[in-house]
Amino acid sequence: MLLAGRPRRLVALLAGFLPALWLLVPVHELLHAAGCALTGGAVSRLEIEPLFGGALLARVFPWIVAGGEYAGRLSGFAPAGDLSYLAAVLLPHLALAPAGAALCRAAARRGRPALWGASFAAAAQPLASLFGDFYEAAAIPLTAAAQRLGAAWAPALRGDDVQLVWRRVAALGGPGPAVLFFAAALGGIGLALALLRVSGGVACRDGGAAELP
Questions:
Q1: 139: domain range?
Q2: How far apart are alpha carbons 52 and 49 in whole angstroms?
Q3: Residue 82 and residue 145: Cα distance in Å, rounded?
Q4: Residue among 135, 151, 145 at smallest CA distance from 183
């Protein structure tokens, strides 16, 4: 097994996981921006906390601002339609989760806990975004359909902060917004689990791993 009860392997795993977690904040946010720009949208403001390199990146990209309410957030963007919006929301996960899972499996086969820890930080991105990006991804087509059916309030249920969206639901009142909100939440969970399954998992299927000293 990768750890096999040896504390230094756990230390090595954490030594890979924690720096990767830090690095993935700006990488994740830059991929959001890339998803929007590559599909014809425009990016005007990407907030990244200085702790995660926001001040440095702001010197390189004029649309990056050091600071904000979140560790990182694409707060100013104009997608070229809903498909562009979906690309902006999902590109970090479509890029990072499969690559991270593949590296996890390779690390497990070779018995490299530090590499496994770093790769797991990428592979687990969908789990960290169940009620953020994945809620938003599911909400995009659902709210579009609801709006076509006459629910003019539906676009208010889009967003990557479910607590904020829920406050909008409460302000709107009535069963319709609540039903749509929970449908998007469940849909987001389904999308995340589907991506994790397609990514192939983070362990060797045969359970094998090389031995470490």
A1: 7-199
A2: 6
A3: 11
A4: 135
Asked if 151 and 176 count as a contact pair (C-beta separation under 8 A), the reply is yes
Q: Which amino acid is at 183?
A: A
133 CB burial (10 A radius; 0-12, 13-18, 19+):
buried
**What pLDDT band is residue 202 in, cutting at 50, 70 and 90?**
confident
**Residue 206: inside a domain, yes or no?**
no
Residue in this structure with the two tokens 């904040």, named with its chain if needed: 25
Give 212's pLDDT tier (boundaries 50, 70, 90).
Answer: very low
To the nearest 10°, the Cα dihedral for 60, 38, 133, 90?
-130
- Bridging pattern class, strands 42-48 and 64-66: parallel
Mean pLDDT of the chain: 92
**What's the half-sphere exposure (Cβ side, CA atoms, 13 Å) at 1?**
7
Compute the half-sphere exposure of residue 60: CA atoms within 13 Å on the CB side of its CA: 9
Length in residues, the chain: 213
- Rounded to whole angstroms, the Cα distance separating 6 from 174 reads 55
What is the C-alpha separation between 53 and 26, in angstroms, rounded? 7
- List the beta bridge partners of residue 47: 65, 73
* Residue 80 forms part of a structural domain: yes
DSSP H helical segments within the chain, as ranges? 7-38, 54-60, 82-110, 113-123, 125-128, 133-148, 162-172, 175-199
Q: What domain count does the chain have?
A: 1
C-alpha atoms less than 13 angstroms from C-alpha of 136 in its C-beta half-sphere: 23
